[in-house]
Amino acid sequence: MSRKMKNKVITNLLIERIASEGKCLGHHEEKVVFVTGVAPGDVVDVRITKGKSSFMEGEPVNFHEYSKERIDPFCSHFGTCGGCKWQHINYDLQKTYKRQQVLDQFQRIAKVEIPEVMPTLGSEKTRYYRNKLDFTFSNKKWLTVEQIQSGEDFDRSALGFHIPKMFDKIVDVDHCYLQGNISNDVRNELRTFALANGLTFYDIRGQVGLLRNLIIRTTSTEQSMVIVQFGEDDPEGIQKVMEFLNEKFPQITSLLYVINTKGNETFHDLDLVTFSGNDFIEEEMEGLRFRIGPKSFYQTNSEQAYELYKVARDFADLQGDEVVYDLYTGTGTIANFVAKKAKQVIGIEYVPAAIEDAKINSQINGIDNTLFYAGDMKDMLNDEFIANHAAPDLIITDPPRAGMDEKVVQMLLRLNAPKIVYVSCNPATQARDVALLSEKYKVEKIQPVDMFPQTYHVENVVLLTLKS
């Protein structure tokens, strides 16, 4: 079936609606066809790239009619880098489909009775809303078909984003509309400096090259952190790069680097060097200051994170005498945010450095009713831990995209907390966990929150209450 259908062109396919992962769908001969790069209402010819017995996938090769819902993308890299798959769809429709995505996941996966899903809480900023971006250096710059066919000899050095599904090809980013402040200037100036000085860009296949990765973090308090990841231990080259950044951008408040010769770009197990400034930056929310280290997780849309946490706090409806467990607490942002309305908040997080930040965040804000522990959630949240701490009146959980380990879910069922506020960046795994929790809990409220305009990702907050 797959070989027979591949490269077949379906003509005049009406695109009906948005599906999962940013794709849209239409129907051809009673089969669903998933199509990239289109909008509901488009009429297109589609080349099939994958054919299965129950569905097909394809890409548009010709447009007969354009949807009313289309808008002009504002980024020259749209359609190539893969970071913003919905720039061609108006924002109101983006929010509508994000709500629908949550509803679909809960109906298809959770299969439990749910209240009406509230309209998606939109982001005031739809551009320049991210406070963190990772850029990759590469000697394998992505070339367009036109560039390849031109026969010209192009410099293959690039600093930008990975092409979707191609780990060794990088789009050389000129301007990114996801992060403002100094982000574009730092990236472009560093690329220019590296090329002018003959510094090597990383070869991911050969695992060689000096410049490997660039991370830029910014805050609403106008602080900034720049981390350069080097693929080789070259003191002279490292010094040259770091001195350039320090002199060119004196406004950087935290300038760090790390030497990483591993097979991947993660550096949680590596030592970072503070070249200048502090080894942290600070974010502010409702009068509270939050310290963020280079290894700390913090919601990547600072302004919308405030709206997200307000939803979580409203769902919690704390009266002041409750014990709260904050699972996957990160740097303790939610824990410290709700602490003034609770008797005690106990946070658990896998990354030790984040827990140290969480403790500092309590200290600098004069909060004395929090406790923080570092460790793997499924190992930490055990009988001994429960025996040594007060039973929770409320559990707030904000796990990574994979959701909660089933062992953690089973412990939540044993704890019998009256309420659970479940914050998730992946409604599918959230729905899966809610299905397991439905043994004892019912869904009271569901609020999608858009943290990532121009993408198909949606954050979701669910209130669960113990069945009577």
Give a brief rundown of this model:
With 468 residues, this protein is α/β, with parallel strands linked by helices.
Describe it.
With 468 residues, the chain is of the alpha/beta class. Helices cover 26% and strands 29% of the residues. The chain contains 12 helices and 22 strands. The strands form 4 sheets. Strands 9-8-7-10-11-12-13 form a 7-stranded mixed beta sheet. A 7-stranded mixed beta sheet has the order 18-17-16-19-20-22-21, with helices on both faces. It has a 6-stranded mixed beta sheet with strand order 1-5-6-4-3-2. The longest helix is centred in the first third of the chain and has 20 residues. The model has no long low-confidence stretch (mean pLDDT 94). Belongs to the class I-like SAM-binding methyltransferase superfamily. RNA M5U methyltransferase family. GO terms for molecular function: rRNA (uridine-C5-)-methyltransferase activity.
Residue-averaged pLDDT, rounded? Answer: 94
Main sheet summary: 7 strands, mixed
Beta strand %: 25-35%
Number of discrete helical segments: 12
In the predicted model, the low-confidence regions spanning at least 5 consecutive residues are none
Which range best describes the helical content: under 10%, 10-25%, 25-40%, 40-55%, 55-70% or over 70%? 25-40%
Broad structural category: alpha/beta
